[in-house]
């Protein structure tokens, strides 16, 4: 529809331009130089005819002068015909033909007279002067009609130009109104796009939070699993210590009473011996000796829980938007402790090289490492699965993190889509399809890149390359 409308508008514009061009060409068709040249040529022929008359008079019957050749008229007539025909009048051709015949006849008669033939006054009968006068009138009429037609076309050209100018003014007004309407629509559409963009950003934030909640759920499950073991130490130790707390209190009381008897000058030797035997029996009880080791086990469990809490704090780092110094190796260690429940009995090998500290958002980079580690764990069997984490510095400006597994790999037709939002090859309910997409965006926002190399049946290796210095946009 738009193409047809544009074609129609273009055809109308072309027709209007062609009409103006036609009127402009017609308004300049009169050739003033041709008219003046035709008048001059006609005057030359009149002069030729007058000289012919003089020759005829000089060569009359009573004249004693010798024969004379008549003046040539062909060049003057040819020039007259050439210029007169430019005026394009219907009577010009007939008048020119009649004049040419008369001139040729008179020229032949003059030649005969010049040859000495006695023709009496026959040459005077040729109507050359009448033909010249007739042609002069036709030329003037042709010139006048051409001038009138030119003036008429010039008048039409003036009106047509005024019409075109009015049409252009109307089009300019319409274009101005259309431009205002377009500006309003652009403003409205920009507002709508801005609103849509805000909604998309809100949706994106919700999706990111959803993925983080999913990762948080996995992390909480892992933390709960990791806390259970040291918590069992603490619980068993406290229960044992509680059961033996009475014996320890009794030993303290009996020992204090023994000391009082020893220090007393009036103490009975029998009572002293009996109290000493009681204290010896309490000291000989092995349950009190185990109390120390049980308390050590409890302290060991509490220490493990404290370390796990520190790891959890380092992983979460609530100041997610801030860019601070980040130790990549420490981030890998922390993430592995958090993901211990997902790793299960899989073999995990760490090849942590000497890498410089980078400027980054710790919680975001930890989230990337966790997503890659969890994906590697889900791609490998718990029995026989192997995961290798490697850190190294490919150059002085970058640090690389590799997460490789010996899992089932990714098919070639799926590989280009793994970073697309909501794309997942997992079963329904086991993945949101946002983990790798968010990881890709986090790495990209840090000025880095994430590459993947996978062979089905062999395994997959993800390589995250991060700059040492954070981009200015991220730092801002």
Explain the overall architecture:
- The protein is α+β, with helices and mostly antiparallel strands.
- It contains 12 helices and 7 strands.
- The protein has helices at 2-26, 32-58, 74-84, 92-114, 128-263, 269-284, 286-316, 328-338, 340-343, 362-379, 435-445, 472-475; strands spanning 324-326, 347-352, 358-360, 386-395, 398-405, 449-455, 459-467.
- The chain has a 5-stranded mixed sheet. The chain has a two-stranded antiparallel sheet with strand order 1-3.
- Residues 61-66 have low confidence and may be disordered.
Q: What's the gist of this structure?
A:
By secondary structure, the protein is α+β, with helices and mostly antiparallel strands.
How does the overall form come out from the CA principal axes? rod-shaped
Structural class: alpha+beta
Task: Determine the oligomeric state from the structure.
Answer: single chain
Radius of gyration over all CA atoms, rounded: 59 Å
**Helix share bin:** 55-70%
Number of strands: 7
SSE topology string: HHHHHHHEHHEEHEEHEEH
Q: What is the rounded distance between the termini?
A: 49 Å
* Uncertain segments: 61-66
Count of runs of 4 or more consecutive helical residues: 12
Estimated share of beta-strand residues: 5-15%
Major sheet size, sense and barrel closure: 5 strands, mixed
- How would you write the strand order of the largest sheet? 2-4-5-7-6
The mean pLDDT is 75
């Amino acid at each position: 529809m738009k193409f047809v409308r544009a074609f129609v508008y273009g055809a109308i514009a072309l027709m209007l331009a062609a009409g103006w061009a036609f009127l402009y060409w017609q308004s300049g068709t009169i050739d003033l130089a041709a008219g003046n040249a035709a008048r001059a040529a006609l005057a030359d022929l009149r002069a030729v005819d007058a000289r012919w008359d003089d020759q005829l008079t000089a060569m009359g019957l009573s004249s004693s002068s010798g024969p004379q050749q008549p003046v040539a008229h062909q060049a003057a007539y040819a020039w007259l015909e050439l210029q007169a025909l430019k005026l394009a009048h219907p009577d010009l051709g007939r008048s020119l033909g009649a004049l040419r015949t008369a001139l040729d006849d008179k020229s032949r008669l003059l030649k005969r007279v010049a040859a000495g033939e006695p023709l009496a006054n026959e040459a005077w009968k040729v109507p050359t002067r009448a033909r010249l006068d007739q042609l002069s009138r036709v030329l003037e009429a042709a010139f006048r009609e051409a001038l009138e037609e030119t003036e008429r076309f010039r008048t039409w050209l003036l009106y047509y130009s005024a019409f075109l100018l009015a049409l252009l003014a109307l089009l300019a007004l319409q274009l101005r109104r259309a431009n205002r309407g377009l500006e309003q629509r652009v403003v409205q559409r920009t507002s709508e796009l801005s609103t849509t963009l805000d909604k998309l950003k809100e949706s994106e934030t919700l999706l990111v939070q959803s993925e983080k909640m999913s990762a948080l759920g996995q992390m909480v499950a892992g933390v709960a699993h990791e806390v259970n073991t040291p918590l069992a130490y603490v619980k068993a130790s406290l229960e044992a210590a509680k059961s033996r707390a009475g014996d320890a209190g009794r030993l303290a009381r009996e020992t204090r009473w023994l000391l009082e008897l020893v220090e007393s000058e009036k103490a009975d030797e029998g009572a002293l011996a009996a109290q000493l035997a009681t204290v010896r029996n309490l000291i000989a009880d092995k349950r009190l000796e185990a109390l120390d080791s049980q308390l050590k086990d409890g302290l060991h469990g509490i220490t493990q829980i404290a370390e796990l809490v520190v790891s959890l704090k380092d992983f979460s780092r609530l100041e997610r938007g801030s860019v601070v110094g980040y130790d990549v190796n420490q981030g890998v260690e922390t993430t592995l402790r958090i993901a211990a429940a997902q790793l299960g009995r899989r073999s995990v090998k760490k090849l942590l090289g000497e890498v410089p500290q980078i400027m980054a958002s710790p919680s975001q980079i930890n989230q990337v490492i966790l997503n890659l580690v969890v994906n590697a764990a889900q791609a490998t069997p718990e029995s026989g699965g192997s995961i290798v984490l490697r850190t190294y510095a490919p150059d002085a400006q970058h640090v690389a993190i590799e997460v490789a597994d010996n899992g089932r790999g990714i098919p070639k037709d799926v590989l280009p889509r793994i970073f697309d939002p909501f794309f997942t090859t997992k079963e329904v309910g086991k993945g949101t399809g946002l983990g790798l997409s968010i990881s890709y965006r986090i790495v990209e926002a840090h000025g880095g890149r994430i590459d993947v190399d996978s062979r089905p049946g062999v395994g997959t290796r993800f390589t995250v390359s991060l700059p040492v210095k954070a981009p200015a946009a991220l730092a801002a």
